[in-house]
Specification:
globular; 5 helices; two-stranded antiparallel sheet; 12-stranded mixed beta sheet; alpha+beta; 20% helix
């Protein structure tokens, strides 16, 4: 479960990965990677009897419009609060503010005391708790996984989800629920139906050790408080905000000048 915990703490709040969540939990092979499902135990899968009605398919189409819009936002700034409540282990509960910014193929992530900056020339990780700034070779971070709409329809259609849609305070609310699902019993998306800006993302994850007990599930909730399209905060995506000099003889700069540099370039 270590990899799963790291993923929840660091990657999930990044809103660009909201689309990834759709793909990860809809795809059994990816679920096994992220959740480290025990393939040796007896399979725990829903009885695949329900198929999406035409109404449900129409309701789901709004999610895929949201999914496509997220992927098309090459300039985006988002902030909000990410929380995870583990009903099986209260020590694993998390509540952190986060920031995400994208400018083309460059990305900035911040959650709690950790920052990650993916630039064309370097990948920077900052731990404020440890007082360290780590610089390594650039990593290619793709935009969210792209699966054709028909593929996602088929995957979800085979996993016994029911679709529910409605309006709350002017926002669209679309959820997929399956009370006995192997890994994710509920997805819920709240978004502006006109601008397709995401407001909330919620998941109820099955406790793999006690899958039939809903009181042991983990609830993961992302609330967006600021959403700015076609906006770039140049400072947080500027190498000079973090490092001075040139590769590989960098030194910490600005607010990080007293941090210990770990050069993994």
């Amino acid at each position: 479960m270590k990899k799963y915990t790291i993923w929840i703490k660091v990657l999930l709040p990044v809103v660009i990965l909201s689309a990834m969540l759709v793909t990860v939990f809809a795809t059994p092979a990816l679920r096994r990677v992220f959740l480290k499902e025990n393939t040796q135990r007896e399979a725990f899968v829903p009885d695949p009897q329900h198929r999406f009605s035409e109404t449900e398919k129409a309701q789901l189409s709004s999610i895929f419009r949201l999914y496509a819009h997220l992927d098309s936002c090459t300039k985006l700034y988002i902030s909000g609060v990410f929380s995870a409540v583990d009903h099986a282990d209260s020590l694993a509960n998390i509540s952190q503010e986060f920031i995400f910014s994208r400018n083309g193929n460059e990305f900035y992530y911040k959650i709690g005391s950790t920052e990650m900056i993916s630039l064309a020339d370097a990948f920077i990780t900052i731990s404020h708790d440890a007082g360290k700034i780590i610089v390594s070779r650039p990593k290619k971070l793709a935009a969210p996984f792209q699966l054709p709409m028909d593929t996602l329809f088929k995957v979800w259609d085979n996993e016994n989800y029911r679709v529910h849609a409605g309006i709350s305070k002017g926002d669209s609310v679309v959820s997929l629920t399956c009370a006995n699902h192997a890994t994710c019993k509920e997805y819920r998306f709240v978004f502006n139906p006109e601008t397709l800006s995401l407001k909330e993302n919620y998941m109820r994850l099955t406790n793999l050790r006690d899958p039939f007990n809903p009181d042991m599930d983990k609830e993961v909730h992302t609330v967006i408080t600021s959403w700015k399209e076609d906006y770039v905060n140049g400072k947080i995506l500027d190498m000079g905000s973090y490092l001075s000099g040139s590769a590989p003889q960098w030194t910490p700069a600005g607010a990080y000048k007293d941090y210990k540099l770990v050069n993994a370039f």
